[in-house]
Amino acid sequence: MKSLIDPFMRLMSQAELWAPAAIGGILDYVNQLQRGSKNWNFTGFFVHLFSAIFFGWVTGMLAGGFDYDAQIIAAAGGIGGFLGVRIADLIVLAANRFK
């Protein structure tokens, strides 16, 4: 059981990197649903959320590497998550265009 708790606690200790991106990804997806540009799809939601978390985490890690304050790291994670979702949307749009 301890082998499962250690990675989870490590993930929770980095919440300032991925939590703002996750919240932003959820809000962005709900916004796109409300505007009608997306239809509800669990897989699409999961990919959208994973993309936001991944890019937010990467951006937060970069900001942390430059020794910024925790607030700047969290903001960078949120912005990175938002931009990562937009990049993923552009990739999907381009892939659909070439079908």
Structural notes for this entry:
- The longest helix is centred in the C-terminal third of the chain and has 28 residues, at 70-97.
- The protein is globular.
- The mean pLDDT is 83.
- Helix 3 (42-65) packs across helix 4 (70-97).
- The protein has one domain.
- It has 4 helices and no strands.
- With 99 residues, the chain is an all-alpha fold.
- It is 86% helix and 0% strand.
Please give a quick description of this structure.
By secondary structure, the protein is mainly α. Helices cover 86% and strands 0% of the residues. Helix 2 runs antiparallel to helix 3 (42-65).
**Total beta strand runs:** 0
Task: Characterize the largest beta sheet: strand count, sense, and whether it forms a barrel.
Answer: none
- Span between termini: 47 Å
Which stretches of 5+ consecutive residues score pLDDT under 50?
none
Strand proportion: under 5%
Shape: globular
Overall mean confidence score, pLDDT: 83
- The number of helical segments is 4
H and E string? HHHH
- Helical fraction: over 70%
For the CA atoms, what is the radius of gyration? 15 Å
Strand pairing plus helix content: what structural class?
mainly alpha
As for the number of domains, it is: 1
